[in-house]
Fold Tryptophan 2-monooxygenase.
Amino acid sequence: MTRRDFINATSASYASLLAWGMLHPAPASAFNLPANGQRTDGKGRKVIILGAGLAGMTAAYELGKLGYECTILEARSRSGGRVWTIRGGTKETEIGGGSPQTCSFDNGHYFNGGAARIPHHHQLTLQYCKELNVPLQIFNGANESAYLYNDGGTGDLANRRMRISDYHNDMRGYTAELLSKALDQSTLDQQLTKEDVEKLIDFLKNEGDLNTAHLYKGTNRRGYKIKNDPGAGNLPGTLTDPYGLTDLLRSGFMQPVFYNVGDYAYEQQATLLQPIGGMDAIPKAFEKKLTGKIVFNAPVKELRKTENGVRVIYQKDGKTVEITGEFCVCTLPLPMLKNLESDLSGTVKRAADFIPYMKTGKIGLQFKRRFWEEDDGIYGGITRTNMDINQIWYPSFGLQEAKGVLIGYYNFYSRAEAVGALSITEREKMALALGAKIHPQYPNEFENSFSLAWHRTPYSEGGWANYDDATRKKYYPALLEPDGNIYFAGEHTTYLTAWMAGAFTSARRAVEAIHARVGEYTKK
Ligand code: PHE
């Protein structure tokens, strides 16, 4: 009897399944704090939240449930922070002399400039989507029909595109063949019994699709030659031939950019999800729950400690405004905190100064035809290359529509720095020229673009906190403690950096800490 049969047969309740350890509890159900955030005079305790990104809005939403009175100060005219969907009409001017951009995508077309995929195990993110009625769809992250392209290599297979599935199947085949040969030669005798070896060889035969002689001679897993697909009548199809092992090895595909992250990296394994209509559906849903609580176009200028709380000075309509509160939840990204006039402690200031942020950028390219679907059979997924464009992301939505926007580059570190330093026009030129090496249709089909470099984007100035062991040890702890009545939240205060899940979980941690402290006061 399988678990499913058992559950169906007994119609076991949710509670009993939980009790038997057959289900994981929904994380939000554990977040059940008593609603005593109000003072004895019936008014809510005042909390000033800096930043209307996911961390700030989650903090306001959860504190609101507990009776606190929250005000969010947001420097931008929109919510969401690094959760930002680019559509027709989106405007941005980057810092460091960037020229103004206005997106001219057609109606209904967009790309997620920041957060763009939700791993299936980010339960808290999924929980908030559910709670806020944000419908999800599949984000196709691993598509074996997308390409690898090694530029500048010398092998026969360099400087030309290769289907990911050809590469994976051939490498699996050859490595399985080599290992099965080693087993045949009894070199592993000491560790394994004869029966074990036979079973292992069976596994390798399947893993690599080896023939009866345990040799890799190609596989139908790579598919058929173009125009020789199986069909009606006398059309059995002609299989493709494998590439040679030495050709594969000498063509540069062992570089990290080509790793099979879609299968191997925990955060990128199927299934990935995304909100229907753009990632900003999440911040927009929070905004609806926070009517009247967000002050937009209100960049914070000073953060001060007072005897009983905090004092925040911000700019609004050219005027300087001051507000006070009992607590502050500061979700500003560290590059912003670094430049803020404040009474923050030395350890927090040093954290802001020395925790590096990722340089990263994307470009959305609108094409008048979805040639990657029509000509290449690519529906979502990611092409990888060692060129400056690094990755091409094909949209997992709007399939078979007339037009489409794909992400023409998504890069990090020095590639993002180099590309981000270019003018908007030069970025577009670069993305088109390099992308055309993989997709020769680019020049004919291109319509318009919108690019961004997060390290040059006002009020973010970086993609995400990029810790190593040393900075984790030296600077991170300062962000976990309140500094007087100031609490820190945001992905940079978690081990889930670079994910929305980090923003969510950090906000809940701050809310719990504030609420526990208030609980202590009210006991006195
Ligand atoms: N979460 C971001 C993304 O999915 C950044 C990231 C990239 C995090 C790769 C981990 C690995 O693109």
Remarks:
- Residues 136 and 276 are 5 Å apart (CA to CA).
- The chain is about 30% helix and 20% strand.
- Confidence is low (pLDDT under 50) at residues 23-30.
- The first strand starts at residue 46 and ends at 50.
